[in-house]
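Today's session is about reading a structure prediction critically. Students often jump straight to the picture, but the first step is always the sequence itself: look for stretches that repeat, for charged clusters, for runs of hydrophobic residues. Only then move on to the predicted structure, which in these notes is written as discrete structure tokens rather than atom positions. Here is the chain we will use throughout the hour.
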Amino acid sequence: MNLLDAREGEEYIIKDIVTDDEELEAFLFSLGCYSGEPITVVSRVRGGCTVSIKDGRYNIDTDLARAISI
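Below is the predicted structure for this chain, in token form.
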């Protein structure tokens, strides 16, 4: 299951980042998005979603959301 399948307001644990793009993986890591971290979909927006990771909220597009396995 990836982040696009997540329900709003429910906390999930990140299982893996599924991508061959090292730059994308490094970007997600810099946001605090890595295996074992909790993540919550705050809301859905056109072309992606808003997520809460640690103490921050980020708007991510569908490609990033697809790469995050929960």
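Discussion point for the tutorial: Residues 46 and 60 are 10 Å apart (CA to CA).
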